[in-house]
Design goal:
The chain is an alpha/beta fold. Helices cover 35% and strands 19% of the residues. Strands 2-1-3-5-4 form a five-stranded mixed β-sheet, covered by helices on one side. The two termini are 20 Å apart.
Amino acid sequence: MKTIVVGLGNPILGDDGVGWKVIEEVKKQLTPDVPVDIQCLSLGGLGLMEHLIGYDRAILVDAFASNDQSGSILVLKLSDLPNYSAFHTASSHDTSLQNALELGRSMGAKLPDEVSIIGIVTRRVYDFSETLSPPVADAVPFAARVVIDLLKQVTNHKEEYQPQG
């Protein structure tokens, strides 16, 4: 199963850069035998969709707005999230990832059937800083472990379906 892991956010906007920090930690901990492509991006919607073309599965790591305690880690499927662009139709420049994936598929692009979201709850995403707040920084190694565990599930899943012979 061809998999991509993407850290999202802006690394100079405080906690908004948590996705990039988690990816840095994943790269440190990941063994070379796990076949995966890893990227850090500051994109959404159509731009993000273009990076997902050709993959069977995507794991996205990003800052997440929630009423949960800052630094909490949420593991969701993209289908669990509301389609925010359904409420924001005035922009002709971009759309939600859900709409972008639907558009890409309608144009014949091979896009992941499975998109997992690792969200780290943040409060401080507009302060210019390359430093994470303490509760968000504390969540980075745990979020990296979640990503690696999901990757191992993919690997085990793949091994499960290897033809015997």
